[in-house]
Amino acid sequence: MKYFILPNLINNKWSLFRRKFIWRVNCSQYKIMIAEFMLQRTKAEQAEPVYKKFLLQYPDIVSLSKARLTSVEKYTSSLGLHKRAPNFINAAKYIVKNFKGKYPKTRKELLTIPGVGDYVAGAIMAVCFNNADYVIDSNIARFIDRFYGLKLSGEIRRKKIVIEKAKGIFKVKDQRNFLFALLDFTALVCKPIVPLCNECPLRGKCKYSPSSSPT
């Protein structure tokens, strides 16, 4: 299947499995970074109320750069992210000091920010700059593995073939909404354990067999 067909198939059915989260509205680089920091190993529904309170206390990168660790921990601990609390402050301080409070527009520079890994950098590039060559988390990697019948094992999101496939499917005009659609699709349709293959908009085009072991 040509790469450009895949985003169309997912986007056209997005209304059926679309999720609405506050960080998807008027999203800035700062808001996306905070959201993604909170979403690490945390369900979106759990993170959203904490995210709202966090932004009321720290509405921008400057206010966060001046925050005390104990204050930030009050928010992160409720999500089980107490060990990652320093990332919030260190990232803010780094951006203020090295980029004058402005987010860089390249993946390479974003990856220098404390706590920002490949997925967060890709998400910022796609959502805020519409300029990501690819975005991969474990869910997107699982989908790629299933759809293309790769049958990979282990930690697959960093495998070369998965990255190559991701680069292909992210060659779209509206990377922001495609990423949101893909994340919703992998969360609600192409689920880890019991995917809803009979309800899938890619049914008949995907090489994944429901009888196969989950990836």
Explain how this protein is built.
There is one protein chain. By secondary structure, the chain is mostly helical. It has helices at 5-12, 14-17, 29-39, 44-57, 61-65, 69-76, 85-99, 107-110, 118-129, 138-147, 160-169, 175-188. The protein folds into two domains: 5-19 and 135-199, Endonuclease Iii, domain 2 (Orthogonal Bundle); 22-129, Endonuclease III, domain 1 (Orthogonal Bundle), CATH 1.10.340.30. The protein has twelve helices and no strands. α3 packs across α4 (44-57). The relative contact order is 0.13. Residues 211-215 have low confidence and may be disordered.
What is the CATH C level class of the largest domain, in words?
Answer: Mainly Alpha
How far the N terminus sits from the C terminus, by CA atoms, comes to 21 Å
pLDDT average, as an integer? 91
What general form does the structure show? globular
- Judged by helices, strands and strand pairing, the structural class is mainly alpha
* Fraction of residues in helix: 40-55%
> Mind telling me which CATH architecture of the largest domain this is?
Orthogonal Bundle
Percent strand equals under 5%
| Tally of separate helices | 12
State the domain count: 2
